[in-house]
Every structure is written in structure tokens, then in C-alpha cells.
Design a protein that fits this description.
Layout (H helix, E strand, L loop, with lengths): L6 H11 L7 E4 L8 E4 L17 E7 L4 E7 L8 H16 L27 H8 L5 H6 L1 H6 L6 E7 L1 E2 L8 E6 L2 E6 L2 E4 L1 E2 L2 H21 L19 H18 L3 E3 L7 H10 L17 H8 L4 H11 L6
Parallel strand pairs: 1-8, 2-9
Antiparallel strand pairs: 3-4, 3-11, 4-5, 5-10, 6-9, 7-8
Helix pairs in contact: 2-6
């Protein structure tokens, strides 16, 4: 038998089944000129955050503001669950690659090798070839015997690099906010972007760069370069349609990442006074008594239509309002 209750009775019954537990006054914090980003760590357990309490505080942070790349280094304990032999090998690869001109690696460097300056003789031997002939490199056995000394000299990879690219807010995309509760108040701060931080395997890129440089030296030793004027040869193709836009965007991103230099940041632990000071003053409205009232420019039905899928009855209603189209 169909229900004979009125809409008011049905609404009252629903409110009894799902009562309101709490109400909050909502405030939107003013912009203070600082950039606010949300860093997500999908590969990290919530029980092991990067904080000093767990001995996982980031030792260094850097950012490329224009291209949006962000990296941080977290120290790794070498006392247990650490492969010392691999740590020495990876550390040596990174050190040698940087000595041969590679200041950065991976996507944040545009997947490029050492930067060549203007007027540089590209046929000249690399730094690693000269230094190797003058000073012999310590063997793996030597470094294993003096592991603590090798670690203090920076010859061991005892840091984990975590990085990502900032997805900034764009028109037509969702606007994310950071919420902070204070009593019965909810303070919302607009985010400038979101970045998912994942492990970066720079030691693999360093090994690839060393192998490529070694292969180049072998080719030059077997076939010395001729004393002729260099000629620039450039091969290109012309994509069409959606591929053209995608290729152009990717190429511009890699070029921007390669040309931009890193800007070092200072990291404050969550328990540091600087962090608490920014939390209190930057993520909350201080003068709530004189805060301007938020007035919505939409009615309830308009808001629901804006965030929901199109309703068939609404589309039919709009067509009726528009009326039949007359052709001149």
C-alpha cells in the first residue's frame, strides 16, 4: 500500500533517523602571500610520516617554481636493513656523474645529460677520463673496509630522494582547500596546488649517464674526431590534430625543466615553533567577529544542479522555456 504521509512528515522522519550531530561556522582564510601546497605520499604508511619523531625528517628540499617540480631528501639509516655494497656503488655512480657535468637527473632535469656551455668543444674528453688517469679510484673492498669513513665523505648513497610535479589549480577544475577545526569553527584555506611525492631513482639515471659517456670515450679513442667544421643536423616531424598539442606541451615542459635551476627550501618539522606559528596565523581567521559574511550567489537548487549530473526533467524544462526555433 502506498504511503499517505505528507512531505513534511517524511522529512521529519528522515531527520529523526539521521539527526544532526554537530554544526560548525565556516570561515575562509585570507591569502597571506605564501604558497600553500598539499604534498601526498601514496607510498608511505600513515604510521611512518616524514617527521623528526620517527627519525625521518627531510634533510633537504628544493623546488623549480616555474616548471613545478619539487624534491626532498630523507636520510636512510645504514645501521640495519641496508645493503652497504649497493649503497657504495650507487653513491659512487652519483658522484662520478655529477663530476662529469650532470647536476640533476630524471624528469625534473628534462631527461637530459650534462649541460654543455656555449662554445664548448664537444669532442674534448670528459672530466672523468682525466681524473681517473691521475688519481686511482678506491676499490669497493677499500670502501667496505672503511664504510663509516666512506659515508662521512659522501661516497655512500644514504639518502632517499622523493619528488613530484605540482598540479596547480586551473580554471574549470576542482578547487581544493585545507580544513582546520578549532572548536565549533571550520577554517578553509585555498590550496595553490597538489603534488604526489614518489621515490626518484636518480642513481639509475646516473649509471645510464656514465655508460653513455664511457661509450662515447671508446668511440673517440677508436676513431679520433676529424678537424672539420661541425654541422648541425636536425630531424623533425610535424604532428597533426591532438598529437600536435600533446607533443608541443611535452617538449615545452622538458625544455623548461632543463633550463630552470633549483631553488633550495628550508624545511621545518611539524613540531617546530615556526610550523605552529604558521598554523595559528596562516590557517585561521584571527578576527572572527569582524570577518565578512559569506553570501552564496546560488540558490539551493542551482547549487545542486551545478555539482550534479544533468537531470532529464531539467533539460526538458529548459527546452520548453526556450520554445520552438523559428527559421528566417
Amino acid at each position: 500500500m502506498p504511503s499517505t504521509s505528507s512531505p513534511a512528515e517524511a522529512r521529519a522522519r528522515t531527520e529523526l533517523d539521521d539527526p544532526i550531530k554537530a554544526e560548525y561556522d565556516v570561515f575562509i582564510t585570507p591569502r597571506l602571500g605564501a604558497q600553500l601546497y598539499l604534498l601526498q605520499h601514496p607510498n608511505v604508511s600513515p604510521n611512518e610520516p616524514y617527521i623528526a619523531e620517527h627519525n625521518r625528517q627531510p634533510a633537504a628540499m628544493r623546488i623549480k617554481p616555474k616548471s613545478g617540480f619539487l624534491e626532498m631528501e630523507v636520510s636512510v639509516s645504514t645501521s640495519r636493513f641496508f645493503n652497504k655494497e649497493k649503497g657504495i656503488k650507487f653513491g659512487q655512480d652519483l658522484r662520478k656523474a655529477k663530476a662529469e657535468g650532470s647536476a640533476s637527473f630524471g624528469l625534473a632535469n628534462g631527461f637530459s645529460g650534462p649541460k654543455s656551455g656555449r662554445g664548448r668543444n664537444t669532442t674534448a674528453p670528459l672530466i672523468g677520463a682525466e681524473s681517473a688517469s691521475r688519481a686511482p679510484e678506491p676499490t669497493l673492498e677499500d670502501l667496505m673496509d672503511d664504510f663509516e669513513g666512506a659515508e662521512s665523505r659522501g661516497q655512500v648513497l644514504n639518502k632517499m630522494t622523493i619528488g613530484g610535479q605540482i598540479a596547480r589549480k586551473t580554471s574549470g577544475k576542482p578547487i581544493y582547500m585545507l580544513g582546520s577545526f578549532r572548536g565549533n569553527e571550520l577554517h578553509l584555506s585555498p590550496l595553490d596546488g597538489v603534488a604526489q611525492m614518489r621515490p626518484q631513482f636518480h642513481h639509475v639515471d646516473a649509471q645510464w649517464q656514465l655508460d653513455r659517456n664511457a661509450a662515447r670515450r671508446e668511440r673517440e679513442a677508436a676513431d679520433p674526431p676529424r678537424q672539420t667544421e661541425p654541422r648541425a643536423v636536425q630531424m623533425s616531424f610535424k604532428p597533426t590534430g591532438d598529437d600536435a598539442q600533446h607533443v608541443g606541451t611535452t617538449d615545452a615542459l622538458l625544455k623548461a625543466a632543463q633550463e630552470e635551476t633549483w631553488t633550495r627550501l628550508k624545511h621545518h618539522d611539524e613540531s617546530a615553533p615556526e610550523s605552529w606559528n604558521f598554523y595559528e596565523k596562516g590557517l585561521h581567521v584571527e578576527d572572527i567577529e569582524n570577518a565578512p559574511e559569506l553570501i552564496s550567489s546560488m540558490k539551493n537548487e542551482q547549487y545542486l544542479d551545478a555539482i550534479s549530473a544533468p537531470r532529464p526533467e531539467l533539460s526538458a524544462r529548459n527546452k520548453k522555456k526556450a520554445g520552438p526555433r523559428r527559421e528566417a
